[in-house]
């Protein structure tokens, strides 16, 4: 492990601060749409360091009580001589403030070196581990300086199909490229491909009738939805494609033939053409079920491509800098494809080169979610090493 100049100056007190900040952030409940309190904690921390924070107006358009936060920290060094060729080069670091819906109150506890929720529910390490790391990084470079300009982006409603960052104006970014720390897998993994995502909303309309007196006069929307789901191929279709029906709702009472039923499904695939074919097949199954003789329902179907996938060449400067930073910190870089998405998908769609990196968290979106103190500290080391590697990779503005 080769220690970089920024890493070498990270002390024990700062590492304790990192864990303490993480636990504090987890206690602040911030499911998608309710990020304001968590955002205020981030804003207060950055402003205490003398860092201005800009909040955009994404909240109103995505159904959140808060917008995306963007902060900038100019390059700085120990002497004016050191500053001669560092101005004007920058990197973006990004994390999201929201979590999936909570099954139980969050009370972080430290067990055998791992932060967990004392209650039976998610911890919120996705993505508050990364939020805590970025705050610790900001605290460190506010004192020690950084070899390049740093932009910090904290997004809302990431868990709601990347809604926050999709409403973010990426043209305001000044960095050459950026990094997202949002993949729940061992540190060292570099996500070089991620799928496109389609959402399918279906609403079945039948006819209500008394279930005991006149069932033959009713047309069950729930039956039509059930027949449609039963006819679909769900789960993993191949190495690059998955399908899921995530929610279903309908009916009014036990003794009424249900007049209405809705469902929401998704298709993910690394191949756009493959995704479109599978979406078409699902739409066909929905129509066929509605038209079955024992269903005879109408169905309204909406299809939305919520975000685009990507494939990144391994030789891209952002990928190469990430791998060098990981190596410097003692991790063996590994390029992987992911079935999940992150803010990187939306930023890349806006033409801003972004790499998603594994953050060492485990069991995200599940009760039992956890992250080790070692992983938190490892993430901070990697983030600081990234600044050095990106500075080395970018041409000097002074030359």
* Rg over C-alpha atoms, rounded to the nearest angstrom: 24 Å
Q: Quick check: average pLDDT?
A: 93
CATH H level, superfamily name of the largest domain: Zn peptidases
Number of strands: 17
Which CATH-level-2 architecture of the largest domain? Answer: 3-Layer(aba) Sandwich
String of helices and strands = HHHEHEEEEHEHEEEHEEEHEEHEHEEH
Q: Beta-sheet strand percentage?
A: 25-35%
Q: Which regions are unreliable across 5 or more consecutive residues at pLDDT < 50?
A: 77-86
What is the number of domains? 2
CATH class category of the largest domain = Alpha Beta
Total helical segments: 11
The global form is: elongated
CATH topological fold name of the largest domain: Aminopeptidase
Q: How many strands, which pairing sense, and closed or not: the largest β-sheet?
A: 9 strands, mixed
Briefly note the structural class of the backbone: alpha+beta
N- to C-terminal distance: 31 Å
Short description:
The protein has 399 residues and is α+β, with helices and mostly antiparallel strands. It folds into 2 domains: 5-194 and 311-393, 3-Layer(aba) Sandwich (Aminopeptidase); 196-307, Alpha-Beta Plaits, CATH 3.30.70.360.
Would you write up a description of this structure?
- 33% of the residues lie in helices and 25% in strands.
- With 399 residues, it is of the alpha+beta class.
- The chain folds into two domains: 273 residues, Aminopeptidase (3-Layer(aba) Sandwich); 112 residues, 2-Layer Sandwich (Alpha-Beta Plaits), CATH 3.30.70.
- The longest helix has 21 residues.
- The radius of gyration is 24 Å and the shape is elongated.
